Amino acid sequence: MVGEMTNNGRIRQAFPGTRDLTSTEGSEYGPVEFTREDVDALLHERIKYKSKYNYKERCENTMDYVKRLRLCIRWFQELELDYAFEQEKLKNAMELNEKHCADLEVSLKEKEEELNMVIEELRKNFSSVQVQLAKEQTEKLAANNSLGKEKEARLAAEKLQAALTDELAKTQGELQTANQRIQAVNDMYKLLQEYNSSLQLYNSKLQGDLDEAHETIKRGEKERTGIVENIGNLKGQFKALQDQLAASKVSQDDIMKQKDELVNEIVSLKLEIQQVKDDRDRHIMEVKNLQDEATKQNDFKETINELEGKCSSQNKEIQELQDQLIASDRKLQVADLSTFEKITEFEEQKESINELQGRLEEAELKLIEGEKLRKKLHNTIQELKGNIRVFCRVRPLLPGENASDDAKTISYPTSLEALGRGIDLMQNGHKHCFTFDKVFVPSASQEDVFVEISQLVQSALDGYKVCIFAYGQTGSGKTYTMMGRPGNLEEKGLIPRCLEQIFQTRQSLRSQGWKYELQVSMLEIYNETIRDLLSTNKEAARADNGVSPQKYAIKHDASGNTHVVELNVVDVRSTREVSFLLDHAARNRAVGKTAMNEQSSRSHFVFTLRISGFNESTEQQVQGVLNLIDLAGSERLSKSGSTGDRLKETQAINKSLSSLGDVIFALAKKEDHVPFRNSKLTYLLQPCLGGDSKTLMFVNITPEPSSTGESLCSLRFAARVNACEIGTAHRQVNVRPLDYRLSLG
């Protein structure tokens, strides 16, 4: 390989392992290149001798070998120097680059400070321009308002004048009619007088007729008097109308006078300006005439000088006025330029602000779309995995509960991956962390909760089986979450909101050819007994001992559907009908007072809505089921203080919830046998927990420090539920409607 020349003039090897064809091997002072093969050959070279005893030859060969070794060593030393020189050069270049980078950073900081100052100044200018623009707009708006008021006043005066003219014409017509009636009465009076004279000739024979004639005359006089009074009233009204018309004419004349005065003032100002110009021209002409006369008559030099002085003073005044006018024009131009620059600057800042706002809105939209996509992907993953989704809701502290910061046991992580999904619980100094599909803080409204489940409710209309149930200790807000507060529209629970959404969506899908039929049933499981809450027979609904005399059996068919025998099923067509049924069921539901809750639900409430849809255009049928369940609250006897019937209810509730826990444990461990038949509750929820259903559980907890143990148990149970895989839900399409017995899925 051919060596390359460095900056110091030395020849160094570029790549070892090749021979330099231009090397001057054997020269003591010339530049020499050694390759790896040359060095290896030199080190392993064995000196060959022609004669073993020729010491001179051996000495020469040895000297030659030593000389080549020295050349190789010198070449290595030079190569080492080259490498040291290159290293020093690179080090210096690196220091220069670092220094340059530091200078660039300092200059960038200075530029940034300058730009910040410029931006601050632009913001101040922008605010001042905004204030000035707002002021100008206000003045313009005030001028427009005054002009509009003037136009409205003029139009009102014209309308009033037209109305008064019409009223005057109408009054004149009525007056003419009254005059005609008076003339007719006068004519009649003349005729009566003539008739009276003729009657006087026959007084002896027609005395009775004369009396009647007198009475007729009196009536005529009374009518005449009434007509005269009416004419007087009409004249007064006519005079009043004339006065109003005159007043309106006066006001109109005043307005026109004001307008004429303004016009005259403008004309006078124009005339004054023209007169000043004419005076200036006249003085100039006089000066010229006087100058012409001065050439002819030298006797009037003094007069001419005076006139010239006057003319020069007037010219000076005119020049001063012209200078002032030019200065004013310049100031006006400068002001126009500055205004134009400010407007341009304002427009640029406005465009930059709009651009920044557009970027901000775009970023917010991307954030919202990303959050929607995350939720959608999360729901898709959960559906594919077949997991039961779990939402956690923490109720607010009630009046009388400990609300101090030291007593708070619940906190919410703020990390990005756990935000809105994590909850931490402190107990005895130990922190327990949980993560669910969604966590609602105490300030979350009923609307916020419903928004998260609205898509799941929509699945019921699409032909899926959907189950939503609330779990938690007594007093944690389960019934409030599901039913809400009666009479308060903003605090409606999930059940009323779900029904409103379903009816609204049903109405909107009619345009696509869909027709839906909805059926409702409501039951409660009280002391391991099923009660029909829609039953109209109160004795059948609830006996004295709390046990319904009628037996309601849970049946499963071959298609995997479940229905309750002899349960009342009601067709519904509006939310009003469903609200009436919910009120009826609430009155029939078992509630009681305990030490932990003033109005404690003593039974498991199951609301079922069966949806049958048919599309006339595609002849497609769908069947969906929506189960909304309010479980009774778990409680400890030591806290609830239950006795008698409350004690039996508590034992039955805890037993059914314990059976639910056993089912969840079996599902989590994927055991072959799942004990659904251990209680009526688990047997009824078998399609929701065991397979073809989209299931969501609300775990409700209370922030009260005294309930930390129960809250921890609820959260641990919810975590096990969230880990259960129950299989992927399937849509029910092209299935003929079942009988009127409502299925639970």
From TrEMBL:
Keyword Cytoplasm recorded: yes
Keywords annotated in UniProt: ATP-binding, Coiled coil, Cytoplasm, Cytoskeleton, Microtubule, Motor protein, Nucleotide-binding
Any one of the GO BP annotations: microtubule-based movement
GO cellular component, one term: microtubule
Pfam families, per the entry: Kinesin (PF00225)
GO molecular function, one term: microtubule motor activity
Entries under InterPro entries matching the protein: Kinesin-like_fam, Kinesin_motor_CS, Kinesin_motor_dom, Kinesin_motor_dom_sf, P-loop_NTPase
Region described as Disordered: 1-29
Gene3D superfamilies with a match to the protein in the record: 1.10.287.1490, Kinesin motor domain (3.40.850.10)
Localization terms from the record: Cytoplasm, Cytoskeleton
Family annotation (SUPFAM superfamilies): P-loop containing nucleoside triphosphate hydrolases
Domain Kinesin motor: 387-724
Coiled coil: 76-223, 252-380
Biased amino acid composition, Polar residues: 1-10
Residues given in the record as ATP binding sites: 472-479
Family: Belongs to the TRAFAC class myosin-kinesin ATPase superfamily. Kinesin family. KIN-14 subfamily.
Name of the protein described by the UniProt record: Kinesin-like protein
Phylogenetic lineage: Eukaryota, Viridiplantae, Streptophyta, Embryophyta, Tracheophyta
